[in-house]
Amino acid sequence: MTNIIVNGGSELPKSDCPKDWTEAEKIEQEFNKDKSKELEPNWSFDCGFKLDFDGPVVNIISRFYPPKELYGPGWDGKLTLMLGGDDIELKEFQSPSLVELRKEVESYLEELKVEIFEVLKEKFKPKE
Q1: Domain-by-domain residue ranges, the chain?
Q2: What is the 3-state secondary structure (H, E, C) of the chain?
Q3: Mean model confidence pLDDT for the chain
């Protein structure tokens, strides 16, 4: 006969596992009170009170202003690479058209991704 265990089985004695979803939500709020959901991983409970720590570590934040009387004749703005909540890299763009802006920004981002990947690959390469 085979036993099937659902959600990890019975709770162990002296466990600090939440007893219900209200308690789980309070724990999540406490653990995440100083965290930005958009800029860093956050704690959350899943079904069966499995605990997750998920979210972004590296983010791109940008804003581009359209050609208007007060902004100027072309598209201009900034793209910021963020690690957690800290600015790591800032790149300014000025483009005569929306099509050109998209091309420049996406090309720059691809270069940035290659650089980031190479640094991380070197840092975390398997030790021989």
Answers
A1: 21-54, 58-123
A2: CCCCCCCCCCCCCCCCCCCCHHHHHHHHHHHCCCCCCCCCCEEEECHHHCEEEECCCEEEEEEEECCECCCECCEEEEEEEEECCEEEEEEEEEECCHHHHHHHHHHHHHHHHHHHHHHHHHHCCCCC
A3: 88
Predicted model pTM = 0.69
Which stretches of the chain are assigned E, i.e. beta strand? Answer: 42-45, 51-54, 58-65, 75-83, 86-95
Please state, in angstroms and rounded to a whole number, the distance separating the CA atoms of residues 14 and 12.
Answer: 6
Instruction: Give pLDDT tens digits for 65-112.
Output: 999 888 889 999 999 999 877 899 999 999 999 999 999 999 999 999
